[in-house]
């Protein structure tokens, strides 16, 4: 239809992009963030808001399964791009420049719409019985999503999904125009996502969608309150690559949490992220973004890219100082952050201040000592720091603590560091 | 104009939404340090709407579609009905004798709407967004009610056109500044806009709106901006003298003032980080609420002194 065609073409120039960073590709992640922002494209808040899914780096087994799950939840018209960890800025730029044309292609859009509707059923059929964490109650945040097909809920039980099946495998090679078909094919094998939960396990309990009821346990005040087991991550805005927090929630208070990194052993050590002020700016940008202050966060990111691209210190010093001053002077931000995490033996405001001081020191030409770099927390120690925090506070703590996913030289000695 | 106003209202509201979206996009690009050309800013809104129109609607497992639809539609209907009592010029599409109360009742529908949209998808992060809004409501609603009641008190009437008439000489914003400030803050919170957008925050992956795609998202985002436009429009008769002003006709003054309030609200959004209710409710209850009560008391004393109390 001509109207649809025109709308597709018109819309294709303002896509929302969901970045899925893979552990070990921080440098590439920064490059892509910059490429997206400089085109004035928006970053999506989640799969439902996504037009373009960009996998940054080469995912391992666990990440592949998660990405397939996320991809299933992305509405058509959609596009998936898999970026090789060694992709150069020119490659990134070339791939992103193709996006509007691909998104505007009505035939592609139609195929994607079909495969989006089909994929769900394949996954449920193939993934039967492979749920790793059987004790996850009351699935919700990241549970099964399906297209608006009234029959879908029934076919997954009966297994008679044959009429749609032929679309599936044939489509996989097409999307994303990437050639990484093997990634897409993983959709059928969701062993380790921790996000899947199948109706088959609760046949005896006919609850909506086969989801279990929540348990009840005592909360921090000793009152009996519903308990929700929920995996947070690894695909969340402004979230460390590959990090999954298995949290036990009561209301919006985390009563306990355990952190893990997907594909941790596979994460490559080589990382072009650089240290020093680049990392400081990255952490500051992330904290500001989670704190809901997108302007300065974007400013921090664009300065980070200029430093990474080798801009001389004198050239960016003024803007770095201005940014740090603006963030320091915000009374609202102070009101929101000060003392946050005190019961978790942390202070978000203090962590932010230390990064800002280092940025100012760099701008002022003073040597920044590696020793006073706020050491990122080892992932294994993260969980204990979050117990008792509210969800919003936990997000800020994760951003500010900057847990060291083993993607840097410190990977080998994360054990017992925990400061 | 009189007979046309009921039909004009939706057009004006949509124009207001478009104005908000364009200005918001331009300011976002500017704040990020990527300057935004006027043409790009103008076309962006259309593109964003187009991408939601062509996008597939997806839903989650065991989602409650009825709740979601009820929520999305309630948001839009409430915003339009709330705006119905605003005098466009001297006449409102519906100049109710209890206009102030009507407006307040309609905006409270937003509580239910956002909660339902958050509840519908059966998703923890959406639900978090939903109850964040309810918590926000508990913080903003009382100062909000005292603020609008203060304006009604100053005029001695709950009818919007009476309140406008009472401001022929001095705007209420001038002699009830605390009430006006509290109104602007709470209007922002009501539309979960600006620094009060934690219910749809990035940190909970879009919160209440997180699982909406396609037309659902378009309507929800549109409804939210409609609510903002309605709240800004109501500030004009309540505090900014309605159609009173030199040179221009009354309807033009209403439009100009409404756009000015909207521009202010959009600008503030890009100046401040998100105000989380676990910190803000303390400010709201300890500072804002007593302040608006004192303001109401002061206005009541002035009204009594003028002899307007015992008509």
Automatic annotation (TrEMBL), chain A:
Biased composition (Basic and acidic residues): 107-123, 133-148, 154-180
Ranges where the record places region Disordered: 91-180
Domain of life: Bacteria
Protein source organism: Streptomyces oceani
Protein name according to UniProt: Uncharacterized protein
UniProtKB/TrEMBL annotation, chain B:
GO CC terms, sorted: plasma membrane
Cited InterPro entries: NADH_UbQ_OxRdtase_su1/FPO
One GO BP: aerobic respiration
Keywords: Membrane, NAD, Transmembrane, Transmembrane helix
UniProt membrane topology term: Multi-pass membrane protein
Main location as per UniProt: membrane
GO function term, MF aspect, one: NADH dehydrogenase activity
Transmembrane region(s): 6-27, 66-90, 96-117, 138-158, 170-193, 226-244, 250-268, 280-305
Lineage top rank: taxon: Bacteria
Cellular localisation: Cell membrane; Membrane
Family: Belongs to the complex I subunit 1 family.
Full protein name: NADH dehydrogenase
């Amino acid at each position: 239809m001509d109207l649809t065609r025109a709308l597709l073409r018109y819309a294709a120039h303002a896509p929302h992009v969901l970045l899925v960073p893979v552990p070990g590709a921080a440098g590439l992640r920064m490059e892509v963030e910059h490429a997206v922002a400089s085109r004035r494209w928006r970053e999506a808040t989640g799969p439902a808001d996504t037009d373009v899914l960009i996998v940054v780096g080469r995912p391992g087994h666990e990440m592949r399964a998660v990405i397939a799950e996320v991809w299933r939840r992305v509405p058509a018209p959609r596009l998936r791009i898999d970026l090789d960890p060694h992709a150069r800025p020119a490659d990134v730029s070339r791939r992103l420049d193709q996006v509007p044309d691909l998104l505007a292609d009505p035939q592609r859009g139609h195929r994607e719409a079909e495969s989006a509707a089909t994929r769900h059923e394949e996954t449920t059929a193939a993934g039967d019985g492979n749920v790793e964490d059987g004790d996850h109650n009351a699935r919700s945040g990241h549970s099964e999503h399906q297209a608006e097909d009234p029959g879908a809920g029934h076919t997954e039980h009966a297994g008679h999904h044959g009429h749609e099946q032929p679309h599936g495998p044939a489509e996989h090679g097409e999307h994303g125009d990437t050639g990484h078909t093997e990634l897409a094919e993983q959709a059928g094998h969701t062993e380790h996502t921790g996000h899947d939960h199948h109706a088959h396990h609760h046949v005896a309990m006919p609850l909506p969608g086969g989801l279990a009821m929540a348990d009840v346990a005592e909360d921090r005040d000793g009152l009996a309150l519903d308990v929700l087991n929920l995996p947070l991550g690894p695909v969340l805005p402004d979230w460390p690559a590959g990090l999954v927090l298995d949290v036990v929630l009561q209301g919006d208070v985390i009563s306990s949490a355990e952190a893990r990194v997907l594909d941790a052993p596979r994460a490559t050590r080589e990382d072009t992220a650089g240290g020093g002020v680049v990392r400081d700016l990255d952490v500051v940008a992330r904290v500001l973004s989670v704190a809901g202050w997108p302007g300065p966060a974007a400013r921090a990111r664009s300065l980070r890219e200029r430093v990474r691209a080798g801009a001389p210190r004198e050239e960016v010093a003024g803007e770095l100082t201005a940014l740090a001053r603006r963030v320091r002077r915000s009374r609202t931000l102070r009101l929101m952050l000060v003392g946050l995490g005190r019961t978790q033996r942390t202070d978000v405001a203090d962590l932010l201040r230390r990064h800002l001081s280092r940025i100012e020191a760099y701008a002022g030409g003073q040597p920044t000592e590696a020793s006073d770099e706020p050491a990122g927390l080892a992932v294994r120690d993260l969980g204990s720091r979050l117990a008792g925090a509210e969800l919003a506070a936990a997000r800020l703590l994760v951003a500010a603590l900057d847990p060291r996913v083993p993607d840097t030289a410190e990977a080998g000695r994360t054990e017992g560091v925990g400061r | 104009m009189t007979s046309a106003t009921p039909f004009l209202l939706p057009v004006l509201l949509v124009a207001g939404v478009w104005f908000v979206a364009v200005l918001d996009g331009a300011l976002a690009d500017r704040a990020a340090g990527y300057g935004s050309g006027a043409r790009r800013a103008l076309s962006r809104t259309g593109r964003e709407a187009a991408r939601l129109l062509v996008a597939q609607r997806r839903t989650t497992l065991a989602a409650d579609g009825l709740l979601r639809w009820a929520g999305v539609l309630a948001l839009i209907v409430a915003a339009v009905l709330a705006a119905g009592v605003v005098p466009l010029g001297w006449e409102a599409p519906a100049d109710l004798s209890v206009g102030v109360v009507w407006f307040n009742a309609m905006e409270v529908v937003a509580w239910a709407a956002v909660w339902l949209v958050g509840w519908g998808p059966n998703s923890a992060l959406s639900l978090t967004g939903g109850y964040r809004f309810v918590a926000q409501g508990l913080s903003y609603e009382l100062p909000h009610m005292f603020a609008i009641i203060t304006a009604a008190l100053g005029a001695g009437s709950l009818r919007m056109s009476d309140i406008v008439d009472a401001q022929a000489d001095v705007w209420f914003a001038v002699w009830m500044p605390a009430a006006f400030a509290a109104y602007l803050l709470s209007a922002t919170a009501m539309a979960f806009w600006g620094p009060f957008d934690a219910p749809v925050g990035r940190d909970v992956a879009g919160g209440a709106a997180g699982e909406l795609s396609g037309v659902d998202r378009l309507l929800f985002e549109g409804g939210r901006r409609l609510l903002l436009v309605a709240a800004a429009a109501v500030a004009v008769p309540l505090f900014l003298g309605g159609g009173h002003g030199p040179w221009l006709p009354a309807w033009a003054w209403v439009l100009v003032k409404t756009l000015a309030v909207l521009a202010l609200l959009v600008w503030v959004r890009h100046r401040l980080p998100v105000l989380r209710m676990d910190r803000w409710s303390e400010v709201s209850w300890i500072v804002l609420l007593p302040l608006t009560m004192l303001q109401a008391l002061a206005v009541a004393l002035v009204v009594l002194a003028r002899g307007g109390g015992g008509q």
